[in-house]
Amino acid sequence: MKRNHPVPNNETFAAVDLGSNSFHMIVCRYSHGTLQVEDRLREMVRLSEGFSDSRLLADAAQQRALACLERFEQRLRGVAQVHVVGTNTLRCARNAAAFLTKAEHALGQSIEIISGVEEARLIYLGVANSADTDQQQRLVIDIGGGSTELIIGHGFAPQRMESLHMGCVSISQRFFADGVISSNALHSANIAARMELEPIASGYRQLGWGAAIGTSGTIKAIQCALHLQQPDTDGITLDTLHHLRDHMLAVGAINKLDFKGLSAQRTALLPGGTMILLAAFEALSIERMRFSDSALREGVIHDQLNRVHHKDIRERSVESLAHRYHIDKNHAKNVTNTAILCVDQLLHTWHLDGKQSRRWLTWGAQLHEIGLDIAHSQHHKHGAYIAQNCNLAGFSRQEQQLLAALIRNHRRKISNSSFKQLSTQHERYWTILLRIAILLHRSRSHEPLPPFTLQATASSLQLTFPAQWLNRHLLTRADLEQEAHYLRAIDFNLGFC
Predict the structure, then answer these.
(1) For residue 246, which phi and psi values (nearest 5 degrees)?
(2) In whole angstroms, what is the distance from residue 182 CA to residue 72 CA?
(3) Which residues make beta-bridge pairs with 456?
(4) How many CB atoms lie under 10 A from the CB of residue 358?
(5) Dist. CA 23–CA 230, nearest whole Å
(6) Is residue 472 classed as helix, strand or coil in its secondary structure?
(7) Range(s) for CATH 3.30.420.150 in the chain?
(8) Residue 156 burial (10 A CB sphere; 0-12, 13-18, 19+)
(9) What digits encode the pLDDT tens for the residues 198-216?
(10) Is pLDDT above 90 for 310?
(11) 321-380 pLDDT, tens per residue?
(12) 3-class SS at 182?
């Protein structure tokens, strides 16, 4: 894994992928221009086992997962940069929040739930950084336990990304739960996968690709099974998939399948995974696929590195969203500058992280008016909905919820439900400072603000302006009086003079 950008020598990075079927961890060290893999761990925890229509994580699955995370925690001690992501099952589970509290305690790290499209982006990033340096268009397919990601990209840039709600575990539970491999079960599984692929197939074929790459344990297991049957096979083809399907049908039962090197747990998911891949070959007219060991976790590592070197894709996502919703750039810049001026005065008093605080206040200031494109009335609510529900590359689900909460609460009465979703006191302080900065620029005047100071306690804030300034700016005084009233509702006192 070669990098073209300077990275602190001997810096360690780790990524943990909490998948529906398996948990993966990779630990890397940057040394003399190269990322060196120090360790890999994988455990099949079957988190989605028993999930089905209830959308509840089973107690047994939770216990397996927590035991695995406790083991992972030991390996992560001392690693400088750790990023943990949860995927499809944790996106869908109705009891995910309760499980995440226990999981974060077991692992000793925060866990970010990422969207399907964000998962696809990171998968492509991992594959692109390990692929040959040629610039041909690539199709990347990752079959997970509960979802399947398909990405077309060129170089390091994904051009089309989809996350389909089907995976080797979910298909296996639907069609092979009794362990019987029948013609009807294989056909039904294939049709179900084709139905998921149908809405995107035409667009993918039109865009085209030069090379098809498969990743994930499912496709690796399929390749292993194919190689055992046909050792001279070059990659995966439609013919070899048909041959594997026919072989499994002839065997007739999952417990009778015998593929050397595949565990019983992985073999049990082989019919379902094979039907998904076969459907993809048929729907997209794939001729040949090669396997890549790199996947989501490697993408997470490279995304971490990009953030360290000020190439955070989240910045680009915020800029793109601001452009799409015709944000007043000058006003956003003025609000940003004032918000940063405020927070810089309070870093010590409120024990705030300067880099994080400036970043989130900047994003909140840049996007607080995106709802105006829908309507001025309730635009803070419109903007919050947009921020929480659109695809923002680089943002986890929790980060989008934070961004939405900042936008939702930037004006008028503070929403108790939204405010309580802010997980830390730091985030609540950011909300208050963003409100103050926006208030001070309500007139959108070109007249610069005067120097002012802030003094604070844990539950109060005092703004001090030059003598007589507020008497000459009566609208600002009235706005501050109203703001003090709003903040009292959350047990926070605002004073000014």
Answers:
(1) -65, -35
(2) 39
(3) 461
(4) 18
(5) 30
(6) helix
(7) 132-293
(8) middle
(9) 999 999 999 999 999 999 9
(10) no
(11) 999 999 999 999 999 999 999 999 999 999 999 999 999 999 999 999 999 999 999 999
(12) coil
Closest CA to 406 of 374, 376, 436: 436
Extract the tokens encoding 102. 């226990």
Cα dihedral across residues 216, 221, 223, 224: positive or negative:
positive
pLDDT tens digits for range 125-173:
999 998 765 668 999 999 999 999 999 999 999 999 999 999 999 999 9
Q: 236: closest CA among 204, 265, 273?
A: 273
List, for residues 383-438, the tens digit of each pLDDT value: 999 999 999 999 999 999 999 999 999 999 998 877 877 889 999 999 999 999 99
Show the tokens assigned to 25.
């961890």
Q: Which of 496, 495, 379, 494 is nearest to 431 (CA)?
A: 494
Hey, what are 222's tokens? 């399929």
Those residues whose C-beta lies under 8 Å from the C-beta of residue 249, and which sit 6 or more positions away, are: 181, 182, 183, 186
Helix and strand numbers, DSSP H then E, in the chain: 20, 14
Q: Decide which of 3.40.190.10, 1.10.3210.10, 2.40.50.100, 3.30.420.150 is the CATH code for 132-293.
A: 3.30.420.150
Instruction: Map residue 410 onto helix, strand or coil.
Output: coil
The rounded distance, in Å, linking the Cα atoms of 70 and 56 is: 22
Query: Following CA atoms 94, 96, 97, 100 in sequence, which dihedral angle do they give, to the nearest 10 degrees?
Result: 170
Q: What token pair was written down for 229? A: 């049957």
**Four-point Cα dihedral 422, 426, 427, 430, nearest 10:** 150
- What is the distance between the alpha carbons of residues 21 and 19, in angstroms, rounded to a whole number? 5
For the chain, report the end-to-end CA distance as a whole number of angstroms. Answer: 58
- Determine the Cα–Cα distance for residues 1 and 226; give it in Å rounded to an integer: 28
Query: Considering the chain, what percentage of its residues have pLDDT values greater than 70?
Result: 97
Chain length of the chain: 497
CATH code assigned to 12-115+299-305: 3.30.420.40
Q: What residue spans in the chain does CATH classification 3.30.420.40 cover?
A: 12-115+299-305
Strand partners, 454: 463
pLDDT in tens, 20-67: 999 999 999 987 767 899 999 999 999 998 887 789 999 999 999 999
Superfamily in which the 312-451 domain is placed by CATH: Hypothetical protein af1432 (1.10.3210.10)
Contact 145, 126 (CB under 8 A): no
Please tell me the distance from the alpha carbon of residue 420 to that of residue 392, in angstroms, as a whole number: 23
Domain with CATH 1.10.3210.10 in the chain: 312-451
332 vs 294: CA distance, rounded Å: 40
* Burial classification of residue 218, based on how many CB atoms lie within 10 Å of its CB (0-12 exposed, 13-18 middle, 19 or more buried): buried
